[in-house]
User: Fold this.
Amino acid sequence: MRGSRLTVLALSAVAATALSACATHPPKLVTAAARPCPNGGYRQTAELVFGRVSGDGKAGVSEVEFAKFLDGEVSPRFPQGMTVIDAEGRWTPPAGSMIRTPAKMVMIVLPGNPDDAKKLDAVRLAYKTRFHQPSALLMTTGDCTSF
Assistant:
């Protein structure tokens, strides 16, 4: 019995030492910014999704109208370029069945300026106002980029 108590005490001491070592030296996490980015660098990217069915029940946003919107609102704020992809939005309102709507996704590698977020918000507000949309989705992430 005495030997088993000594064993338990010894194991407890080892466990306490190991746990205290973890507390004083936590594992180093590798963040996206710390990973090497071959042939490029770490940059924020924005993905904007615009529904193309007018929120006021009128006709949808045409290809020509959307192109004018890009030329007048997005390109002046982000002249370095963007990628535009045809998409389909799907969502279910609180009291209803699934709605499917054509959409456009605009991907922008952000230049890293302090006003990037304000410019993105201005683009979204312009779209919602012009085309009577209740929302315009914005997703931002950090990525390795290379051109």
Summary: Residues 41-145 form a domain with the Alpha-Beta Plaits fold (CATH 3.30.70.120). The mean pLDDT is 79.
